[in-house]
Each structure stands twice: as structure tokens, then as C-alpha cells.
Amino acid sequence: MGTALVYHEDMTAPRLLWDDPECEIECPERLTAALDRLRQCGLEQRCLRLSAREASEAELGLVHSLEYVALVRGTQVLGKQELQALSGQYDAVYFHPSTFHCARLAAGAALQLVDAVLLGAARNGLALVRPPGHHSQRAAANGFCVFNNVAIAAEHAKQKHGLHRILIVDWDVHHGQGIQYVFEDDPSVLYFSWHRYEHGHFWPFLRESNADAVGMGNADYMAAFLHLLLPLAFEGQMQATPECFGHLTQLLQVLAGGRVCAVLEGGYHLESLAQSVCMTVQALLGDPAPPLPGPLRPCQSALESIQSVRAAQAPHWASLQQQDVAPALSPSARSLEGRPLPVQPGGPACEAAAAVLSSLLDQRCLHPTPPVRTAVALTAPDATLVLPPDVLRQEKSAPREEAEAWARPHASLAQDEALTALAKLLYLLDGILDGQVSSGIAAIPASATVAILDVAIRRGLSRGAQRLFCVALGQLDRPLDLPHDGRTLWLSIGGKEAAVPSMFHVSTPLPGMSGGFLSCILGLVLPLAYGFQPDLVLVALGPAHGLQGPHAALLAAVLRGPAGGRILALVEEESTPELARVLARVLHGEAPPSLGPFSGAAPEDVRALRDLRRQLEPQWKMLQGAGEAG
Q: What sequence ranges are listed for the domain Histone deacetylase (predicted)?
């Protein structure tokens, strides 16, 4: 299965026939510019091309009244003056003799995409359509929108395919009130929109657009996703700058087995629209998203909006009830139980380290897409390990004398087996750092895990990694002589207690339930990762790491974004076949397996995460959207 691209050239036919500055931006070039850029980037050729069909009038009737469908049908025979007069009855709308045909194609393209994904013909896809649809209502065109393409597709998915939970994510500068009106009383559809509201002073000037508006910067989008959308989406088990669109699309693919159907709505700056479409398609194809320009700091209005939505939704969602309900802009000095919190990392040393991090983020460099997406380095051949066809089985190793030089300070690396594993890891790590491989998995002996991880960190830093994020699971301690200089962020998951020895050293117990693990990933790991913006991530599954395959896969999948896909996973040989298989699939761009039914976090895990966030928020701004108890 691949990525579907649904399109029809007839959708470029409608155009404005009279002068109207408000409507002239909805033009045919919106589609041609996007399609041309997809072709220039070689992305269209990698997709499964589907020619859009017209939606039937019965399918349009899933959302729209028969009278309204008949009215739009009648525009095919109207003259210019009649079309202009009819258009004037609606807000920001123009009709053209080809509008009915093209609006049916737009709705039909969304239906085709849903069918292709749910029937297994495609893994995911994009419908490149116009006119857009999310403002249109049951009996009214609105905001360039004629038929509500996404709402029709969602109703179709429910009625034809029997889906019971559908998530609609609407990122647009304008509120898609048409979708909200269709599903506001339907518990089977979760509609998540964020847009400009400005207290009702931004189009469409509706009071109902309130309570889900956030700022429009990269950091604001990421904060809303991490602290609001993804917790709700995981609990509900939903089915179904341009760089930021790639990251958001990539994060959505951890839901619903990766069954993501993207449908073009707005976007009227042609260059930005074309780039955003390309980034979305790249993410759907499984390519790593390019790094976001940093540093990322959510703005005050975004945090206030996130707080408002969390407070309004908390009574309905267990995942929000277990978390905080107001943004922690001024961290409290005491925990909920009244105990003093541990000393917060700060002072001149911490401020200097934060300044170094900010400087490093300003110097962030982009890496071209490597020729090999994922490689696996095993110490010995394993016939039971089944990998995706394009995953490289690495056989080469670094020169033995080079491995011996790196192994010399570590007694546990003196054995031949450990030295062999180290040589293979060094060769794989160099391939990632040199841009030949995007991500990799290395099997290592359990007795040498600590030493090999230490070598991997130092090798990465010596070979040009500016910021290295190490996620250590199990019984793995941070090397004592690793400097706190802002170049390495160490996160230990599996420690005995939550602790923050420094801004760049964080430890938390491994949550015992899936809900706690999700809260840890969304409320701590990802905000730290996007705040740090590493150019290399090391994930080490050490002794007693306690992770099942789906949990390890989710962790690896979400960490692809912050580092532009540059991840190296270290896996103990004893657990290699199953873990290597599932990790290889997600690092290659596939969706992680489900964690199973949603389960809440244990109270002790909630407390540990809350205390950690309060200590870290002053330095790590992406954590602020998680909130504070009211």
C-alpha cells in the first residue's frame, strides 16, 4: 500500500467572472501551483494517482438538503449577471457555470480517498480539490465553499464502512464552522479546529468560533497538538511555515493505524500553499519532516487558548481530568500535596546553558534526504527477522583498530562480541551523521549496553552533532563526565523517582499503564524534544527497559519529527527480532501498532509528571501548554 493522490484537471475550471477583490484569491492557480510543485519534487510520481469522480446527488444529500443541491445544479445554465446576483446572496462566494460539476468532483475526490484507505488500496492520501468545503452548510454556500467535502466523506465513512469514531483535524486560519454545525451533536465525530478568532473580529465573525483558537506560529501549532489534540485522539481511539504541516501530518499518523485522509481546504498564497502541500505529501509517504526553525516558544495567546479549551473539555475527557487545567505560566513552589518541590534547576549555570542552546538553535542546519531511509545492524544473521523490503541489512563495520580505540576506556567492550557490535554501530552511526542513512537500529550485547551508549554519544558529538537527545530506558545512568553544556539532553525513563539534576538531565519512572506512558510521551518527551530540536536522537533500550513492542514503536515514531528522522535505536540482542521488526517499520515511515484500549495513568505517575513539568517549564517553554492545576 502507498499514498494516494486524488485529483481531476476539471477542478481548475471555475473562476471569477466579475470584479470582486474578496473572492479573486480563490483561483485555479491554487491547484496548478500545488500540482506543479509536487511534480517538480518528484512526489506525484511516488503516489498512487486516482482520477476524481463526481459525487452522486444522493451522496451530497448525506449533508446537504435536496433543495440546496438543486439550486447549485441550476447554476450550470445561468448567465453572468444571474450568477453574480445569486452569489451576492451568500457570504464570500462566487458561482460559475462549471461550479456544480467541479464541486461534485471535489466531494467525490474525498469519497474516493476514504474508500481507497479503508478498503486497503492505499495506506493514506491527499485529495487535491477545489472548491473547498469546510465553511459550507446544509443549505448554504459560504466562504468559497459549495459542498462540505470532508463532512460528506465522514458521513460516508460511517454509513458505508461502519466507522464509529472519526477525527477531523482542521488547521486553517478560518474556522470551519460548516463541519462544526454538521457534527456538533454527533458523538462519533471529534472535530478539532484551530484558527484565528480575535474575540469575534476575524472572519467568519462567529461566537461559536471561540474556545478553540490558538496562535498561528510553529510553536503554537505544536503546543496545541501535544497538549490538547493528541491526548484526546488517543483516548478516543479515532479511526480514520510549510515545514510545520509535515510535522503535524507525521504526528497524526501515529493514530488510527496511519489511516490519514488529507483534503485541501484553504490556502491562498500560492508559493506557501504549494510548499505546504509538498510537505504534507512527503510526510504521508513516510519521509522525515524537515527540522522546524527554532527556538520554539508558544505565545501567550496560544497558551491562553489552550487553557480555555482544556478547561471546557476536561469534564468530558479522562485524559484531561488527569492532567492540569490551566497553563503553568508561574510555576507554584509547592506540589498538590503541599510538599515543597525539589529545587528547580536554575542559576547562572543553567542560564548560561540555556543561552548556549538558543545559540545552537539559531545555527541549525538542514540535511538532505539520505538515500537509505532505515538500516539494521545485527551482530549475527537472524533468519527469523522479517524487515520491510527497503530496509537495509548492514553488513559492514568500522575498522577494528578504530573500534578498539573507542573501546579502550571500557572493560565491558574487551570481549570480541562486544567489539564486533561496537564496530557495526560506529559504521551505522557514521552513515547517519554523513547523510547516507536516515535512521538505524543496532543490536548490542546486554553486558555492553552502558559502554556502547557512552561511545555512541561521544562519537556523535565528535562527528558534528550539535544537539544530541538521548532517551535511555531501563537501568542506564548518564555518564558522570558528560558535560552539561547544552549539546546533550539526557532523559532517563525508568529511574526510581522523578528528578531534574540539571536543565539537560531529566529522570522519570516508567509509567505502569498505557495512559501514563502516553502522558509521558505527549507531556514530557515530545515537548522536550521539540524545545531542544536535536539533530540526532539516540534511543537506548537497556536492561529491564520494560517496553513492549507497541510502546517502543510509538516512542520511535514520534521522535522522528524533532530530529528530521535522524534516530539511532540501540536494542539488546536478547530482544532484537521482535523489537527490531517493529522499530524498523516505524522508522521507515509506517504507523505504529495500537497500544490497545485507552487506560488512565496511575495517580503516582500523574504526580511525577506534574512535578517534573513544574520544575522544567521555566527553561523548556514547550512544556507550558501542559498546564497547571487550578
A: 25-221
Distance of alpha carbon 174 from alpha carbon 194, whole angstroms: 8
- The sheet with strand 48-51 has its strands ordered as 48-51, 3-7, 124-127, 261-263
Q: How many CA atoms lie within 13 A of 77 on its CB side?
A: 4
Give the CA distances from residue 212 to residues 170, 184, 309, 627, in Å, rounded to whole numbers and listed in that order: 11, 14, 6, 16
> What pLDDT sits at residue 75?
98
pTM of the model as a whole: 0.86
Q: Which residues does the chain have with pLDDT short of 50?
A: 195, 197, 199, 201-203, 205-209, 212-216, 238-240, 325-350, 353, 356-357, 360-361, 363-366, 628-630
**Cα distance from N-terminal residue to C-terminal residue, the chain:** 47
Tell which residue, 212, 205, 143, has the closest CA to residue 180. Answer: 212
Point out the catalytic residue in the list 8, 101, 134, 135. Answer: 135
What are the C-alpha distances in Å from 234 to residues 321, 394, 573? Answer: 14, 35, 31
Q: Which three cell numbers stand for residue 119?
A: 478498503
Greatest Cα pair distance, the chain, in angstroms, is 87
Q: Residue 396: is it exposed, middle or buried by C-beta count within 10 angstroms (0-12/13-18/19+)? A: exposed
User: In sequence order, what E strands does 247-289 have?
Assistant: 261-263
How many C-beta neighbours within 10 Å does residue 73 have?
15
Phi and psi for 243 in degrees, rounded to 5? -60, -35
The 8-class DSSP code of residue 544 comes to T
Tell me the β-bridge partners of 194: 171
CA atoms within a 13 Å half-sphere pointing along the CA-CB vector of 105: 21
User: Across the strands, what pairs with 360?
Assistant: none
Provide CB contacts within 8 A for 512, sequence distance 6+. Answer: 602, 605
User: Is 135 an annotated catalytic residue?
Assistant: yes
